[in-house]
Amino acid sequence: MRPFDYxxxxxxxxxxxxxxxxxxxxxxxxxxxxxxxxxxxxxxxLIDINRLDLSQIEETSDGGLRIGALVSNSDLANDTRxxxxxxxxxxxxxxxxxxxLRNKATTGGNLLQRTRCLYFYDRxxxxxxxxxxxxxxxxxxxxxxxxxxxxxxxCIATHPSDMAxxxxxxxxxxxxxxxxxxTRRLTLDALYLLPxxxxxxxxxxxxxxxxxxxxxxxxxxxxxxTYRKVRDRASYAFALVSVAGIVGLKDGRISHADLAFGGLAxxxxxxxxxxxxxIGETPSETLFDKAADILLAEAQGYGANDFKIPxxxxxxxxxxxxxxxxxxx
Amino acid sequence: xxxELTINGTQHKLELDPRTTLLDxxxxxxxxxxxxxxxDHGQCGACTVMVNGRRINSCLTLACMHDGDEITTIxxxxxxxxxxxxxxxxxxxxxxxxxxxTPGQICSATAMLEEIAEGxxxxxxxxxxxxxxxxxDEIAERMSGNLCRCAAYPNIVEAIRKxxxxxx
Amino acid sequence: MTEVFKMDAPATDRRLDDMVQGLVGxxxxxxxxxxxxxxxxxxxxxxxxxxxxxxxxxRAPGPSGRVVLSxxxxxxxxxxxxxxxQDERLLRxxxxxxxxxxxxxxxxxxxxxxxxxxxxxxxxxxQARHAAQSVKVTLENAEVxxxxxxxxxxxxxxSKTLDQGDLETAMREAAHTxxxxxxxxxxSSTPMEPHASIATWEGEDLILRGSYQMLKYNRNELADSxxxxxxxxxxxAPYVGGGFGSKLGIAPEAxxxxxxxxxxxxxxxxxxxxxxxxxxxxxxxxxxxxxxLAADAEGRLIxxxxxxxxxxxxxxxxxxxxxxxxxxxxxxxxxxxxxxxxRVHRLCCGSVRAPGEAxxxxxxxxxxxxxxxxxxxxxxxxxxxxxxxxxxxxxxPFSSRRxxxxxxxGAKIFGWADRPGVKERREGEWLIxxxxxxxxxxxxxxxxxxxxxxxxQGTARVETDMTDIGTGTYAILGQIAGDMLGLPRDAVxxxxxxxxxxxxxxxxxxxxxxxxxxxxxLACQAIRQQLAERLEVSENDLTLKDGRATxxxxxxxxxxxxxxxxxxxxxxxEAGETSEAVRQATFGAYFAEVAVHAATGExxxxxxxxxxxxxxxxxxxxxxxxxxxxxxxxxGMALTEELAFDPRDGHVANHNLAEYHIPVNADVPQLTVxxxxxxxxxxxPMQAKGIGELxxxxxxxxxxxxxxxxxxxxxxxxxxxLDKVIAGM
Lengths: 329, 168, 729
Hints:
The complex is a heterotrimer.
Chain A: E1 5-8, H1 12-18, E2 24-26, H2 32-37, E3 45-48, E4 57-59, E5 65-68, H3 73-78, H4 80-85, H5 87-94, H6 99-104, H7 107-111, H8 163-169, E6 173-177, E7 183-187, H9 188-191, E8 210-216, E9 224-230, E10 241-250, E11 253-262, E12 269-270, H10 272-278, H11 285-295, H12 308-328
Parallel strand pairs in A: 1-3, 2-3
Antiparallel strand pairs in A: 4-5, 5-8, 6-7, 6-8, 9-10, 10-11, 11-12
Helix pairs in contact in A: 5-8, 10-11, 11-12
Chain B: E1 2-7, E2 10-15, H1 22-29, E3 48-51, E4 54-57, E5 70-72, H2 74-77, H3 85-92, H4 102-117, H5 136-142, H6 153-167
Parallel strand pairs in B: 1-5
Antiparallel strand pairs in B: 1-2, 3-4, 3-5
Chain C: E1 5-7, H1 33-37, E2 53-59, E3 66-69, H2 72-76, E4 81-85, E5 116-122, H3 125-134, E6 137-140, E7 154-156, E8 162-164, H4 167-173, E9 176-184, E10 187-188, E11 196-202, E12 205-210, H5 215-226, E13 233-236, H6 252-264, E14 268-271, H7 274-280, E15 283-284, E16 287-295, E17 301-312, E18 334-343, H8 357-375, H9 379-385, H10 403-414, E19 425-427, E20 430-442, E21 448-454, E22 460-463, H11 473-485, E23 492-495, H12 512-535, E24 543-545, E25 548-551, E26 554-557, H13 558-562, E27 567-575, H14 578-581, E28 585-597, E29 603-613, H15 620-639, E30 672-675, H16 699-711, H17 722-727
Parallel strand pairs in C: 1-27, 2-14, 12-13, 17-18, 22-23, 29-30
Antiparallel strand pairs in C: 2-5, 3-6, 4-5, 7-18, 8-18, 9-16, 10-15, 11-12, 11-14, 16-17, 19-20, 20-28, 21-22, 21-27, 24-25, 25-26, 28-29
C-alpha cells in the first residue's frame, strides 16, 4: 500500500471540496483497501466519507425508496420495505459476499466495485484496465470467471456485483453530487461504460463526483421477483451467472418481464429485446429458448468461460419457468 | 495519525501510519493477537471482530477510520477461566482443530446470533419476510464467511445451535 | 541411556486394555481448547518480541531467467527500509517432508513464477510491504520453459513399475472391462495460518518461532540452509494453524527471516501473504491416471492396471505416490502399474494431505463405480467380492483390516439399500443420487522420542518436540500418559513444539499420533517398571489409578511411593520388522447423497457418511474431527478445488481464497462418522493406526459417483464443477 493523505469529510459539500485536488472516496473500503494492499489502486489522497449523513432509507413521494449511498448492504437487505416490495434486491444482497462484508460494504461502494479479473489483480501481468495499453492477459489466460457479452478486444472483465444486477432490473437510478455542487441522476445503464477502447474508464462519474443515493422507483405490482445466483460454492463466491427477474402473468400471458444478468458482462446486463419478446406471449420452453437466443446472440467465449453461454441459457430458462409458474399459481 | 479506539471496554490512544488496518493495529500495536490474519483480503473471516456490535473483517478497514468506535475482539468475549457459553460450546463440540480460524468463528457467531435475534434474513431463508429460524442451513449460510480448513463445520454448527438453544 | 524399542513383533499383550483410568479412547475435550477459543494460543507470528522488524518477500515475475533487482538502491532508501536482501541461501522452494537437509537454494535464477527471490526488511509492516511491492524485478535471458505436463520432458519412474501376470490378455478375455483415463488438478493445502517465522539471534544461536509440522527435520533443514550447525538452532512451534503437508519442510520465509535478522541485527518477522502461500509453498501434483479393470461375469477382478502421470519442478525427486493403495486394496492376479514424472516450471509439488491415496484411491474408486454400473452390480458388493485374502502382490498377510465391516456398517447407517437407479430420483429441479467409495491409506510407524516425568505430587509432564497442527496431539498424549500412569487427565501436562525437547516423528503421513504416542507409552511403561521395582511387584500386577497404586491387595499413593523423587523416563520407538512382515493399512467406506440442479449443474452434498477402521482410537472426539476434515477435503476435491495455472507462464492464477475454492460451511452437510473398534497388534504397542488422512482417501469419488447416479453424467476430470456436469446433461 502506497502512502496517502487521509482526511475525513464532514459534509457532502466538504467531501466535494476535498476531492477538488484529486482524491478517492472511501466508504466501506472492502474492495478499495483490497486493491490498495496490492497497489492495483494507489490513491494519493483518501477522503473518508463514512461520517456523512447518507445512511437513511427514505420513502419517495411516488412510492419508491431513496437509499443513502452509505446504507450498508446488511441494512438494505434487512429493510422491511425492501424485503416486502423489492425482494429481488434483498435476495441479491444476501447472495453476495459474507455477513461480515455486507456489514461494511455500502450501497454506493457496491456499485463501484472493480472487476475480479485475476489479471487485473496481478501487477506482474498486462492489463488494459489497470495499465492502459499494456494488453489483456485474460483473453488467452485463465478466464473462467470473465465476460461473454459486452467485451472488447482490450478487456473481457465482468462486473462482480450482485446488488447492481438487482438495481438494474428495478430501474434504479443513482443520484450524484459533482465537485461544482451540481447534482445529477443516472440510470445504471447510463452510469456504466463498456470497456471499448478504454477499459480503465468504468463509469461516467467525473473525478470527485460522489454518489449520494440510489433511488428505487415504486414497486412493481402483480409480478414475481427472484434472484438466481449460480456459483462454484454454495456461498461466499462470486456469480458465474446470475439472473434477476421480475415477471408477471395476466390471463395466461406474460404481462411483465424485466430481466437483468450478472457474471456475463462488464456491467449488469439487460437486453430490452429479450423482454419485448416475452411480453404478451404464453410461457413455454420454446419461448424461453428464443429469449435465450436473443440474449446470447452476440455472446463470445474465450475458452475457459465458454460454458457461461450454455449456463446462461439454462439459468434463464429455469428462472423463467420458476417465475411464470409462481405467477400462475 | 492519532486514533482513539475503545477495545473491549478499554480506551487506547494510538499514533499510527494511516495505512495500518484495524487488524494490524490490534496485532502489531496492541498485542491483541487473538484476531488472526488468514488472507488480509476479506476472503477468510479469521480477522472478524465486532465494531459497534457488528461483525466485520478487521483486515479490510483502516484503524483511522474507526476513531471513537467500540471494538470487541475475541479477548473481550471471554478468558480461559471465564469462557462465554459459545466458547465453551466450541470446546465441547470440538468446533475447531488447529484453532487458527476459531477466534474469528466465535466473534462471527456471537454477532450472528444477534442478527438472527433481530430478525435479519439470509440467503438460506425461505421467506425473507418471516422471522428466520435457527436451522442447520441458516447457521451454515450465515457462517460461510468464516473458512475453516480443518473443516470443523459440522461441529461449529452444532456448537452454535446448542448455545442458542440453551440461551433461548 | 535409554533402550530403543524396535517394533519387531506384534504387541499381543494389548496393555492399554488393562489400564483403568479410562482415558484412552474417550471423547475428551482438547486441553488447549480454552487457549484457542479465547485467542490466547500463540501462533508463529504472534510472539511479542522486542525491537522486531518486518520482512516482506518479493516474487519472481516469470518462470525463467536471471533475477535482477533493478532499483535495489532506491528501495533500500525508502522510508523505514533496513535491508533489501537477495542472499544466495534463500530457498528456491520448501524442503520436502523428512528431507533433513536444505532444498534447492538460490534467488538469482527463477525456476517458476512466484518464486520468492528477495526479502525487504523495514521498521514496520506497512513500510516493508510497500517497499517490497516497489522492487522492480527483471528476468534476463529468460528461456521458454515447459509449464504444463503436455509439453514437458517426462521421466519414467522405473522403481514404480509393476508387471505381474498378463493384464492385456486379462482385458481381452474379461467379461467386463473398464479402461478410463481420469485427471485430477493440483491442490493447495491452504492451511488457515499462512507460513510465518520470527527469527531472533542470540550471539551465534538462532531461535526460530515458526509454523512447522516436523521440527526435528525442520531444524536440520534450516541449519543446513544457513550453513550453521543444528545445535545452534532452536525452533518453537507450540501452536500451528494447520499444515496439511504444506509445513512439512522448511519454507522460504524461515530462511529469509533468519538471514534478515542476522543482517539487520535485530529480530525479524517474515509472514507470507496468502498469495505467496499459494505461489511458493507446495502443491499437490496434478495427475493423469489411466485405470484398467478386467472382471469376470461375477464381478471378480482378474486384472487391474493403474498408470499415472504426475509432475514436479526440475531437481525435485518427489513424485506423488498415486499407486500406493492400488497395490493392495483389491484382488486381481494380473496387475500392471507405471508412473511418469513430467518436469514443469510451476511451484514445487510435495505432500498435501494423504499424498498418493487422496487422488489415487479417489480415481480408482470412480473407475470401480464404472465397473459396477457396467456389470449391473451393487457397488458395495463389487468391492466386497474383491477384497483380497492377502496382499495381492507380496503375498503378505494384512495386519488388521475391517474393510468389509466398514462397507457393510457404513451402508447400513447411510441407508444405502434405498439407493435410486441412475437418473431415477428427482425433487423439483434437483436430481438426487447416491454414491459410495472405499477408503484406504497405508499405515506407517516412525522413529519418535518423548520424555515423561512423574512427580511425587501425582502429576506428570510429557515433553517432546512433536507438534499439534490441529490433530489432537495435546489431547491424546495426555490421555496415554494418564492411562498408563493412573492419573486424571488434568494432572498431565503436555509440552510440545520445541526442538530442545526429545525429537519426535512430527505431524505427517498419519503417523504422528501412533509414533509419538508410542514413545509416550514406552516412557510410561518404563516408569511403571520402576514403580514396580520399588514396590517389589511385577509390573503386570500393578494397577495405577487416580494417583494411587494398587498391588497385592494394598493401595499406596504416589507421594508415598516416590518420596521426594521424580521419575523421568525417555521413550524411544523405531519401526522394526512388523513394517515389513505384514501389509499395514487403514480402511473404510464413504457414502454420499447429492442433489444436482437439473438446469445449472450445481451439486450440493446433502448427506455424507464415513465408516473407518484405524486400529485403536485414542480419542473418539478428535479422531472423528480428523475424519470430518478429511471428508470435507474430499468434498472440495470433488466439487471445487483446483489450482488454475496460466497456460503461458505457469503461474497460479487463482492465488487467493476467493478463487481457490475450499469448501465453506454451507458446502458441508452434517457429516456423520463411525469409528470401528479395532486393534492392530502389528502397528505398535498401542494397536493404533493413523487416522489423519484416511478421511480424504477416496471421499471425492463417493460424490462423483453420486453425481453419476443422479444425472447419468460421468465426470472424469476432477473437480466436477458445474460446467462439466451440464456439458454431459
